[in-house]
Amino acid sequence: MKQEITWICIALLAALPAFAAQPNVHPGQWEATIKTEMPGMPMAIPPVTQRYCLRAEDLVPKTQDPGQECQLLEHTVDGDTVTWRVKCDSQGMKTSGTGKITYAGDTYKGRIDMTMQQGDAPAMSMIQTLEGRRVGECK
């Protein structure tokens, strides 16, 4: 489930279209750390760190789980801050959420709040805190 949550986060970021006004972010190799909290879970979920290439024409990762469909409901760019609302469906798990990320050249910070529902099970809330930093040129 932890890996699926990580890919949901990346899919949410990938759902953002090209920005009309570009935030202050430098293309290259980026390292992102995602900290996930799920209220009611008996144990903490360890942070996940990943690297990806961020290009000038594609300012967000494009990784998405096969079979996962996400729909961007709305997004705004205000200076260096991007906010969005999204819903996804992945193998019977329905996810909806909001996100906000603020870029600062070679770093970013953000947060995603999601609600997940699978079948008749009670809905689960999840909060993801994002921190990224540019680590060099794409390989």
General description of the model:
- By secondary structure, the protein is mainly beta.
- It has one domain (about 1-135).
- It has one helix and seven strands, in the order αβββββββ.
- It has a seven-stranded antiparallel β-sheet with strand order 2-1-7-6-5-4-3, with helices on one face.
- The longest helix has 13 residues, at about 1-15.
- Mean pLDDT is about 80; it is low at about 15-20 and about 60-65.
SSE arrangement:
Elements: H1 2-14, E1 28-37, E2 48-54, E3 68-78, E4 81-90, E5 93-103, E6 107-118, E7 124-136
Antiparallel strand pairs: 1-2, 1-7, 3-4, 4-5, 5-6, 6-7
| Rounded radius of gyration (Å) | 15 Å
What is the terminal-to-terminal distance?
30 Å
Class by SSE composition: mainly beta
Order of strands, main sheet, comes to 2-1-7-6-5-4-3
Keywords:
7-stranded antiparallel beta sheet; mainly beta; globular; single chain
Summarize the structure.
The protein is mostly beta strands.
